[in-house]
Design a protein that fits this description.
- The complex is a heterodimer of chains A (286) and B (291).
- Chain A has 286 residues and is mainly alpha-helical.
- Chain A has twelve helices and two strands, in the order H-H-H-H-E-H-H-H-H-E-H-H-H-H.
- Chain A has helices at 3-27, 35-53, 57-79, 84-104, 122-141, 143-153, 155-160, 165-191, 201-214, 220-235, 243-257, 265-275; strands at residues 114-115, 193-194.
- Chain A has a two-stranded antiparallel ribbon.
- In chain A, helix 2 (35-53) packs parallel to helix 4, helix 3 (57-79) packs antiparallel against helix 8 (165-191) and helix 5 (122-141) runs antiparallel to helix 8.
- Chain B is mainly alpha-helical.
- Chain B has a single domain (2-290), classed as ABC transporter involved in vitamin B12 uptake, BtuC (Orthogonal Bundle), CATH 1.10.3470.
- In chain B, 74% of the residues lie in helices and 4% in strands.
- Chain B is built from twelve helices and four strands; from the N terminus they run ααααβββααααβαααα.
- In chain B, the strands form two sheets. Chain B has a two-stranded antiparallel ribbon with strand order 1-4.
- In chain B, helix 1 runs parallel beside helix 5, helix 5 crosses helix 6 and helix 9 runs parallel beside helix 11.
Chain lengths: 286, 291
């Protein structure tokens, strides 16, 4: 595998991980604009653990996921008191505060950045990305995922049906944060260097944008969005400096023509129908 | 010196006031957090530089920058809000983020990402009193900001158009049934908001004499904080919030260092969101009911 293709694959896999970090809260109706902050917590925590205490990089990254998960449960207490646009603003403010904290934490290099000694290769990142996708896919198929959708559609009715709305909202927020932390750990250990400038509001905005481009009705949407976002600029190599401008136009166009994203429940039905062609009419579903 | 810092904070606050008013207008009337405002702010600043560099007279450069800002804002309206009035609440927000990235990258493609120096056609523009220095463009922007806010309040409360805007804010559908021309009013809101943001960007370019493609993010995102701290949809709240943010910023530089600015500014925003989400002066009743 050439270095160029491997480089792109690593970015793609990391983007898939980040996509699910944003997808989880969105599935419960929360627009998290502070995902960069959680990625940063994961990156710094895992880098510090592997640099200072010699923790193996994989263990450090998984530990970072747990740390950010736990941190998000605490942060969720005040953040989830807000709703809708206020929630987006609170997560935005939170991400900004974390960014400036990273800038001022001299123990991890502050603005100068922080080198990471241990290394995680493409294989490890691929395993983690696959793991994140499979866990999301599995949870989506269970009662857990069903309850999450119910909470998204109507808080009051879900509450009436005996779903602990607050618990599901907190879990969606924290699982997303945990995935972000994992992604941060992988990122730092692959590129061997982290700096506060990686974790700005623009990072959060880009991830939210490509997830919504893919669509949040199904678990496949974020995957498609990440692939689209990573590979399209490569396909448009001829006009490299135009890549983000073209991406922005695509986002605006998608929101006009298909606000629910590129991959929706409708596409799943089409796939089902293709595969169910052999079964007798009475048993076909979808 | 602390007095000088306080003056600088108020002057900087004047710019935040303009941006915060732009945000508060679209959120108060249309229930829409318009993330393209940093882009409009930046476009106006960059075009001020481009026109001045091309040797255009400063009055024409100012007018040109404002026109570009208003036009960009109208484009956003055409492609986001007007198409999507009935979709999920975050869809227009996402589209407006798309426009922010589009504007930034178009400027990047055209003029590069370097910090550009704005050369002013005037000589010394400072008023000195004792040991304090006040720059005239800064004083002008603060005065202008307050005057425009007074004018905007008058427009909203006293005129036929203001009455229609308030009706749309309360309930767009009912307003339409009662004969308010919603489709004509919405572009007007965007143009007024765009002009406020563009004025902020233009004055920023003149005051600090530097522009770059990402200047909007740094300033306009603080405008969002200013809006929330003062109270969403409340025009005077935007003024109070803007000045508070300006002061917080210079004071955190004075007592700590420049890297702590975001910590205190957005920390203040978090505290307000958690403990008094309606803001210091209270969000407009309409915004409170909607969220």
């Amino acid at each position: 595998m050439s270095g160029y293709i491997e480089g792109i694959l690593v970015i793609l896999l990391l983007n898939i991980v980040f996509a699910y970090a944003v997808y989880w809260p969105l599935a419960a109706g929360q627009l998290n604009l502070g995902v960069a902050g959680f990625v940063g917590i994961g990156a710094y925590a895992s880098a510090y653990a592997s640099n200072e205490y010699g923790v193996p990089p994989y263990l450090a990254s998984l530990g970072a996921a747990l740390v950010t998960f736990a941190a998000a449960i605490i942060i969720a207490v005040p953040v989830l008191r807000t709703r809708g646009i206020y929630l987006a603003l609170a997560t935005f403010a939170f991400g900004q505060v974390l960014h400036s904290l990273f800038l001022n934490l001299d123990v991890v290099g502050g603005a100068a950045g922080y080198p990471v000694n241990a290394y995680i290769g493409i294989g490890g990142i691929a395993t983690c990305a696959l793991g994140v996708f499979l866990v999301t896919l599995f949870l989506d198929r269970t009662r857990f995922g069903l309850n999450m959708v119910a909470v998204h559609h109507d808080n009051a009715v879900s509450d009436l049906f005996g779903i602990n709305v607050r618990l599901y909202q907190t879990l969606a927020f924290a699982i997303g944060a945990g995935i972000a932390g994992l992604g941060g750990g992988l990122y730092g250990h692959h590129f061997s260097y982290i700096e506060p400038q990686n974790y700005t509001i623009l990072f959060s905005i880009f991830v939210v944008l490509f997830v919504l481009l893919g669509g949040t009705q199904t678990v496949f949407g974020p995957l498609l969005g990440a692939i689209f976002f990573t590979l399209l600029p490569e396909a448009l190599r001829a006009s490299e400096e135009w890549r983000y401008a073209i991406f922005a136009v695509l986002i605006i166009g998608t929101m006009i023509l298909r606000p629910q994203g590129l991959f929706t429940v409708h596409e799943i039905r089409i796939f089902r129908r293709l595969f169910d062609r052999g079964t007798p009419p009475g048993r076909a579903h979808g | 010196m602390l007095e000088q810092q306080l003056i600088n904070g108020l002057m900087l606050g004047g710019i935040y006031v303009l941006v915060a008013v732009a945000f508060t207008l679209t959120i108060g009337i249309l229930n829409f957090l318009n993330f393209s405002i940093p882009g409009v702010f930046m476009l106006a600043g960059v075009f001020t530089w481009v026109l001045l560099k091309a040797g255009v007279h400063w009055s024409l450069a100012v007018a040109g920058a404002l026109a570009v800002g208003a036009a960009a804002s109208l484009l956003v309206e055409r492609c986001t809000y007007s198409w999507m009035r009935s979709s999920d609440h975050y869809v227009p927000l996402v589209s407006s983020m798309g426009f922010l990235i589009l504007f930034e990258n178009l400027v990047l493609v055209q003029w590069g990402s370097d910090l550009q120096r704005v050369v002013l056609p005037f000589s010394d523009l400072n008023i000195r009193y004792a040991s304090l220095v006040v720059s005239i463009p800064q004083l002008l922007s603060l005065t202008l900001a307050v005057c425009l806010v007074v004018a905007l309040r008058a427009l909203l409360l006293k005129t036929q158009m203001g009455r229609a805007l308030r009706a749309v804010a309360e309930n767009a559908t009912t307003a339409e049934i009662l004969g308010v021309g919603v489709t004509r009013l919405v572009p007007a809101v965007f143009i007024i908001g765009g002009l406020f943001a563009a004025l902020g960007g233009m004055l920023f370019a003149l005051n600090y004499q530097q522009v770059h493609p990402y200047m909007g993010e740094e300033v306009a995102l603080k405008g969002i904080s200013a809006m929330v701290i003062g109270g969403m949809g409340n025009v005077w709240g935007a003024v109070l919030g803007g000045l508070l943010i300006g002061l917080t910023e210079v004071l955190s530089i004075h007592f700590f260092n420049a890297d702590f600015v975001d910590f205190f500014v957005y920390g203040l925003l978090l505290v307000i969101l958690f403990f008094k989400p309606t803001g210091l002066l209270g969000a407009s009743k309409i915004v409170q009911e909607k969220f």
